[in-house]
Task: structure prediction
Amino acid sequence: MFYGIATSAARVPYKQAPTRELADKRLERAPGGTVTADSNDFLYQGDASRDYTPRHGLERIQLRCRAINSADYERNPPESAS
Result:
């Protein structure tokens, strides 16, 4: 259920449960599953990023960059912004 919310288009779950109450009910009905992730891994990743700085050697990085206008992107449509 959570994977589907995180990876599918934002409009679909919003249309199915447009209010907080309906979203909570939908999650309560969702089938449970076995969680195989270790929460310590997430804590380590967050903590490791606290003092990371990309400044050292940043001037040596050379790459091509493509900018994409995401105004019509289905995951985060402008009308769903609060």
